[in-house]
Design brief:
With about 280 residues, the protein is an alpha/beta fold. The protein folds into 3 domains: about 1-30; about 30-225, Leucine-rich repeat, LRR (right-handed beta-alpha superhelix); about 225-279. The chain is about 35% helix and about 15% strand. The chain has helices at about 1-30, 35-45, 60, 195, 225-275, and strands spanning about 45, 65, 70, 75-80, 80-85, 95, 110, 130-135, 140, 155-160, 165, 180, 185-190, 215-220. The strands form 4 sheets. It has a 6-stranded mixed sheet with strand order 4-5-7-8-10-12, with no helix packed on it. α4 links the parallel β13 and β14. The longest helix is centred in the last third of the chain and has 50 residues, at about 225-275. The protein is globular and about 80 Å long. Its main location: membrane. It is a single-pass type I membrane protein.
């Protein structure tokens, strides 16, 4: 009896280890339901006229990763989760789906150099691990969502060459890890927040190239707007001219009044002298 236990012992241990490995392997290939919702919604919001989204099918959305291996073109996995999406320069159309917020393990999102339209969804605030956001060279419109400030690990925000409007949110200055920031060539207006344009301490500073190409955007580090300077001078000139004209008119009026008064006095004196008797 003891001999049979000794013989079966090592075999049973090996079998148990194999079963455990199989369970772990199956667990590792199982998709996170949040990632599946994220990818499904993103695929539905995008148009891929060139067929560049390789293997972006419902089947692969259910299990996009196997450990560090991704079955989706442009996607990178880490421990069975999507942690990077790089879909730049693929001639994609459509919009950015709010369901991206479900890819909560995402650290880098690059949708640059496509033809995407619509707004930047504020739902991106749920990507708390996001470090790189590159949506440049598209046709995105609307305002920059201030909710991006909730992505505390953001190192890069690149939104240049879009059609974004409104003001740059003050809240973005709270991103102390931000080392690259570019909103050039948009339709932004108003003052550049001092927390971005004139950062203090050891925080990385951004030069004028990060903000230029926005007609109605002003403030440091952009040079003084010449158009505004001319308009101010024109206003001052008009004010001075109007004041001088008023002064001349007033002076002329006073002179005319004095002449009329002198004539009246002279006439009155003549009448009085005629009425006085001669002695």
């Amino acid at each position: 009896m003891r001999d049979s236990r000794r013989r079966c012992g090592p075999a049973a241990k090996k079998l148990a280890l194999l079963l455990l490995a199989a369970v772990l392997l199956l667990h590792g290939t199982r998709s996170d339901p949040e990632d599946e919702r994220c990818l499904t919604g993103l695929a539905q919001s995008l148009e891929d006229p060139g067929g560049r989204l390789v293997n972006w099918t419902k089947t692969n959305f259910a299990a996009p990763c196997s450990g560090f291996t991704s079955y989706l073109g442009g996607a990178t996995c880490n421990n069975g989760r999507i942690y990077k999406l790089s879909l730049s320069n693929l001639s994609l159309r459509g919009s950015i789906s709010p369901t991206l917020s479900n890819c909560t393990n995402l650290q880098a999102l690059d949708l640059s150099s496509n033809a995407l339209t619509g707004t930047i969804p504020p739902d991106i605030q749920s990507l708390v691990n996001l470090a790189v956001l590159n949506l440049s060279a598209n046709r995105l419109s609307g305002e920059i969502p201030p909710q991006l400030a909730l992505c505390a690990y953001l190192n890069v925000i690149d939104l240049h060459d879009n059609q974004l409007s409104g003001q740059i949110p003050q809240q973005l200055g709270l991103l102390v890890r931000l080392s690259a920031f570019d909103v050039s060539n948009n339709r932004l207006s108003g003052p550049i927040p001092a927390s971005l344009g004139n950062r203090s301490g050891n925080l990385p500073r951004f030069n004028a190239s990060s903000f230029e190409g926005n007609k109605d955007l002003y403030g440091y580090p952009l040079p003084q707007m010449k158009g505004k300077g001319l308009s101010i001078l024109a206003i001052v000139g008009i004010g001075l001219g109007s004041g001088l004209a008023s002064l001349i008119l007033s002076f002329t009026g006073v002179c005319i009044w004095l002449k009329i008064t002198d004539r009246k006095i002279a006439l009155e004196e003549g009448k009085i002298s005629q009425l006085m008797p001669d002695y």
